[in-house]
Amino acid sequence: MFEDLRKSSKFTQMELARKLNVKQNTISNWENGKAKPDIQMTKKLAEVFGVSTDEVINSLLSEE
Known about the structure:
Blueprint: H1 2-8, H2 13-20, H3 24-31, H4 39-49, H5 53-61
């Protein structure tokens, strides 16, 4: 799950939002499956979390 990926990287929703220059509710929406990041943001998420883009995508798909 995306939330697990964020937590294992020791980020709060607010910290991750600031790092990515998005609003905190955007992170919440990703975690709740209400929205998905675009391709560019998926790449940034992979870089921030230190994982592959495949891992980010799979974590997001598990929210559905």
